């Protein structure tokens, strides 16, 4: 819906965030909710996959290195369940080979940690725009 006072769009796009560090989840959630996104957070990839049955996001933002379910495995599982949902991988391991591997396996984008709030938002907006996730002006 449009914000009639400023003309700016309030986005109610859904983002599922997965990271095994609660602080990282809190930072991502704070930044993304502040930009108008509806976010759900999970510390375990298996819990995030289970949530996909009841709450379908427009985008999944996942850490790469996690116990129980590695981020690339989560990416494969999301693509099998809901192929249209883009998955963005984030990691402190941001070497060329790691990024290339994530992208080759179907990641929509790769965000190197640590990241700034602006770079996180820019990456999310780019992916959603590419996947027709941003509403056209006028609705």
Q: Can you give keywords for this protein?
A:
single chain, 139 residues, Rossmann fold, 5 helices, globular, disordered C terminus
Descriptive report:
- The chain is built from 5 helices and 5 strands; from the N terminus they run E-H-E-H-E-H-E-H-E-H.
- With 139 residues, the chain is an alpha/beta fold.
- The chain has a single domain (14-130), classed as 3-Layer(aba) Sandwich (Rossmann fold).
- Strands 2-1-3-4-5 form a 5-stranded parallel sheet, sandwiched between helices.
- The protein is globular, with a radius of gyration of 15 Å.
- It starts with 13 loop residues before the first strand and ends in a 9-residue tail after the last helix.
- Mean pLDDT is 88; it is low at 1-11 and 133-139.
Kindly summarize this structure in a few lines:
This protein is of the alpha/beta class.
Helix content: 25-40%
Low-confidence spans: pLDDT under 50, at least 5 residues?
Answer: 1-11, 133-139
Radius of gyration, taken over Cα atoms and rounded to an integer in Å = 15 Å
Order of helices and strands: EHEHEHEHEH
Biggest pleated-sheet summary: 5 strands, parallel
CATH topology value: Rossmann fold
Q: What is the overall number of helices?
A: 5
Label the CATH architecture: 3-Layer(aba) Sandwich
Summarize the SSE layout with pairings.
Layout: E1 14-18, H1 22-34, E2 38-42, H2 45-51, E3 59-63, H3 71-81, E4 87-91, H4 96-104, E5 109-112, H5 117-130
């Amino acid at each position: 819906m449009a914000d009639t006072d400023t003309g700016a769009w309030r986005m109610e796009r859904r983002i599922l965030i997965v990271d095994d560090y609660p602080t990282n989840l809190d930072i991502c959630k704070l930044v993304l909710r502040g930009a108008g996104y509806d976010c759900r957070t999970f510390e375990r990839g298996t819990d995030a996959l289970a949530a996909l049955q009841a709450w379908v996001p427009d985008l999944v933002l996942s850490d790469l290195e996690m116990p129980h379910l590695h981020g690339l495995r989560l990416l494969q599982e999301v693509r099998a369940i809901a192929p249209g949902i883009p998955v963005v991988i984030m990691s402190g391991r941001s070497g060329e080979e790691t990024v290339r591997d994530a992208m080759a396996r179907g990641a929509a984008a790769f965000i190197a940690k640590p990241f700034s709030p602006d770079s996180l938002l820019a990456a999310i907006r780019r992916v959603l725009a590419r996947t027709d996730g941003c509403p056209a002006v006028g609705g």
